[in-house]
C-alpha cells in the first residue's frame, strides 16, 4: 500500500530538558521523519547543545540522524550570551552528567545544512526552532531564497499579549537573539510562532511524572531522571507543581496545526533598551496614518489558543509507549 509521505523535520535545538522531551516525542511520531538536528545556544552553550543532541540520539538509538552544529555567537557576533542553565541544570539535562557521546557532529554548519536540505527538498521541510533564531537567520543570510524554499518554520518564541519569562517584556528564545528573530519574522517564510502565551497552558504535572515513573520504558525512565531540576525551577519561579511543555507543544503544533488556533499579522522584535526581545504584533485592526516599521512586512501566524488536553494526551501516548 502507498505509504503516506511523512513530514520532513529539522529540529533546531538547545537541549535542554523540554528539548529532550520534544526530540523523543518527535522520534516516536509516525507522522514525521526527523532528517536532522541543528544546535544552538540558549538553555546551554552551543558546544554542550551539540554534545547533548548527540547523546539524546544515542539514548534513542537513532544515531542515523545527523547533527549539525550551529552558531556560538549571535547574528551580530555577540559572545556574551544568556544561558538558562538555572532552568535545566549546568549540563542542560537535569545535572545528570551523562558520559560524553561517541558520535560527532557532521562537518557542516547548521545554517549550511538548513540551506542544503531546503535545496534538496524544496517546499517540503518543516524547521522546528526551539531556541534563539540565530541559525535560521544565518541560513537566510547565506541564501536569501531560503524563506521561499523552506516549507514552514514553526517557532517556539515570543510572548504575545502577556509578560515574558526573562523579564516582563521578553521571552527567552527571542531575548537570546532579537536581531535574528526580527530577520526571521520579516523574512517572508511561512512561519507559525508559538509563544509562551500558549505554551504556559500546557502543564505536565506531578501526576503525569508519576505515570512516567511507573512506565518501564527506557525513554520514560530517562526523562524521569532529568526532569527533577526542571520541576524545582518551576516550583521556585512560578509556585506551581508541574512544568510547562514549551518545546513538545511547539513540535506537536508542527505535526498537527489543528491543535492550535492562530491569528495572522506582522511581528517585529525590539532590539534594544529595556524592552529588548519584545515581540510586537500588529493586529491590523487600524489603518495607521504613518508608515511604520510594520508597514508592508510579510505576515506570520501567531498561535492564540491550544487544545492543551489533546497535546497532553499526545505527549503521554508517545512517551509511555
Ligand atoms: O525563566 C526562564 N528563563 C529562561 N529560559 C526559560 C525560562 N523558562 C523557560 N525557559 C526556557 O526557554 C524556552 C521558553 O521560553 C524553553 O526552552 C524553556 O525551557
UniProtKB/TrEMBL annotation:
Class of the enzyme per the UniProt entry, highest EC level: hydrolase
Subcellular location: Cytoplasm
GO biological process, one term: ribonucleoside catabolic process
EC numbers on record: 3.2.2.3
Reaction(s) this enzyme catalyzes, per UniProt: uridine + H2O = D-ribose + uracil
Signal peptide region: none
One Pfam family this sequence matches: IU_nuc_hydro
GO CC aspect terms: cytosol
UniProt superkingdom: Eukaryota
InterPro entries, per database record: Inosine/uridine_hydrolase_dom, IUNH, Ribo_hydro-like
Family statement: Belongs to the IUNH family.
Job description of the protein: Involved in pyrimidine breakdown.
Keyword Membrane in annotation: no
Keywords: Cytoplasm, Glycosidase, Hydrolase
Span of domain Inosine/uridine-preferring nucleoside hydrolase: 9-312
Chief site of localization: cytoplasm
Molecular function GO terms recorded: inosine nucleosidase activity; protein heterodimerization activity; uridine nucleosidase activity
Name of the protein described by the UniProt record: uridine nucleosidase
Amino acid at each position: 500500500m502507498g505509504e503516506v509521505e511523512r513530514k520532513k523535520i529539522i529540529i533546531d535545538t538547545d537541549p535542554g530538558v523540554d528539548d529532550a522531551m520534544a526530540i523523543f516525542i518527535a522520534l516516536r511520531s509516525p507522522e514525521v521523519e526527523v532528517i536532522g538536528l541543528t544546535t544552538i545556544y540558549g538553555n546551554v552553550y552551543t558546544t554542550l547543545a551539540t554534545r547533548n543532541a548527540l547523546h539524546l540520539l544515542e539514548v534513542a538509538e537513532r544515531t542515523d540522524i545527523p547533527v549539525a552544529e550551529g552558531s556560538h555567537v549571535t547574528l551580530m557576533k555577540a559572545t556574551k550570551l544568556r544561558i538558562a542553565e538555572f532552568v535545566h541544570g549546568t549540563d542542560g539535562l537535569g545535572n545528570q552528567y551523562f558520559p560524553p557521546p561517541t558520535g560527532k557532529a557532521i562537518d557542516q554548519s547548521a545554517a549550511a545544512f538548513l540551506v542544503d536540505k531546503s535545496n534538496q527538498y524544496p517546499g517540503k521541510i518543516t524547521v522546528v526552532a526551539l531556541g534563539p533564531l540565530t541559525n535560521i537567520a544565518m541560513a537566510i543570510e547565506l541564501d536569501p531564497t531560503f524563506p521561499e524554499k523552506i516549507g514552514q518554520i514553526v517557532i517556539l518564541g515570543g510572548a504575545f499579549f502577556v509578560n515574558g519569562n526573562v523579564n516582563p517584556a521578553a521571552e527567552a528564545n527571542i531575548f537570546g537573539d532579537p536581531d535574528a528573530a526580527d530577520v526571521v519574522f520579516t523574512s517572508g517564510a511561512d512561519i507559525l510562532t508559538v509563544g509562551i502565551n500558549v505554551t504556559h497552558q500546557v502543564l505536565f504535572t506531578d501526576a503525569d511524572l508519576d505515570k512516567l515513573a511507573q512506565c518501564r520504558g527506557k525513554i520514560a525512565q530517562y526523562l524521569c531522571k532529568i526532569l527533577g531540576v526542571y520541576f524545582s525551577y518551576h516550583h521556585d519561579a512560578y509556585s506551581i507543581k508541574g512544568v510547562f511543555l514549551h518545546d513538545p507543544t511547539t513540535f506537536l503544533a508542527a505535526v498537527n496545526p489543528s491543535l492550535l488556533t492562530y491569528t495572522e499579522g506582522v511581528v517585529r522584535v525590539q532590539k534594544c533598551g529595556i524592552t529588548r526581545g519584545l515581540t510586537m504584533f500588529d493586529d491590523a485592526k487600524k489603518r495607521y496614518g504613518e508608515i511604520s516599521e510594520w508597514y508592508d512586512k510579510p505576515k506570520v501566524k501567531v498561535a492564540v489558543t491550544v487544545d492543551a488536553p489533546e497535546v497532553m494526551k499526545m505527549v503521554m501516548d508517545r512517551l509511555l509507549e
